[in-house]
Every structure is written in C-alpha cells, then in structure tokens.
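ESCALATION

Customer reports they have been waiting on this structure for their group meeting. Please prioritize. Original submission:
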Amino acid sequence: MKKHIPNCITLLNLVSGVTAIALASQNQFMDSILMLCLALLFDFCDGLAARMLHVKSELGKQLDSLSDLVSFGVAPAFILYITDVGQTAPYFAEGAPSFIFSTQTHGILVIPFAIYAIFVAAGALRLGKFNLDKRQTENFRGLPIPLAAFTLLSLFFAELPYFVNYTACLLISLLMLSNIPLFSLKFKNLKWKENLHRYLFLLLCVALLFVFDLAAIPLITICYIIVSLIFRKKFAA
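Update from on-call: job pushed to the front of the queue and completed.
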C-alpha cells in the first residue's frame, strides 16, 4: 500500500494543474495561481514521501515529469495567454504596437501563442533531459520547470511592458534548456560546511521576500543561478 502513496501525491499535483487551467478559462486568475502553489506543494511532498518510505520507482519518476509538464508548463502558459487575450482591447487603447495582437489565425493570437508554446516545449525537453541525465540525480542542469513557471508568472503579473515579458519568457525557456549546474535544496544533513550554499541561498530568499514581497521571485531566481555558479565545485559532477 505504501508504495502507492508518493504516486497518489504526484497525481494531486497533476489534478491541481488541471484545475488551475479550468479556473483560468473562467478568468479566475488568482484562484488559478493558488492551485499552482498547491501543485508545487504536492510536487515537493511526493519526492519527500518516496524518500521517507523508501519506495522510489521508475513509474513515479515518469509520472512526476508528466505532472510537472501540465502544472508548471501548460498551466502557466495557458494562464498568461488568456490574460493576453483579455487585455487585447486595453493594449490597443494604450497605443501598443498593434501587430502583436492583430496577427491572428482561427482566433488565435499568433505571437503570444508562439512564445508560450516555446516555453511549454522547452519545459518538456527539460523534463525529458532530467529523466535521462545521470548527472541530475542529486542536482540540476538547467533551470527547474517549477521555478521557471513561477518566475514567469511573477514577471507577467508585475505589469511590465509586453516586450520585457516576452523577452523574459524566451530567456527563461533557454535557461531551462541550458547546461548550467544548479544545486537542489535536498538536505542530506544539516552540517554548515556541506550546505553552505543552501543556507546562503535561503537567507537571501528570506531577505528578498521581506523587502520586495512576491516581486522578489525573479530576483530569487537570479540569486539561485549566481550562488550555484559560485559554489558549483561543491556539487557539480
């Protein structure tokens, strides 16, 4: 029985992502994002449960990636695309370049759709690489898709200019596919020397969140990459 517990938690991640898509389709964006936060919690808990119960399996590994693609790939892209569709009229009213929102086919806004589709495709490739790359059993190569998703969402809901948002989306997609060594937050022990980079990063996270609130997420992502590059010799194989 216990071997099924982590997979059940993973499925809750998937269901949360699907629910987020359904809520976004009804323009309930804050509730949708809350469901993605819940998906992130389940994504953390399934791995923790598997380690505690000693029931890791190949099925769980594949199921985890499939769930992550929906919750942190498809769902964020769908939320952002729907917000763009809803903001078409305001953009025109504010005099933004009309080609961004006037280029349509079968009712689809071509440019925003293409950019978000690139994000989803990059996420799928990143998850596929993760499952096959032996170097990523303990740490990561490339930006993890949950962090990519929340970084992207935080930028778009910060009401930045559209060209900044779209450029950031493409950059985040490239970071997911990059070979940059990044540490994981899985603690094997609490020793200061072995976990210096993790403790430093967590302290930076607390400080940034205290000062900037949710607007700190992009800064946290940047700090994560910088700290990983500084301490890469500690964890990169």
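Sent to customer with the following note: The longest strand covers residues 104-105.
Escalation resolved.
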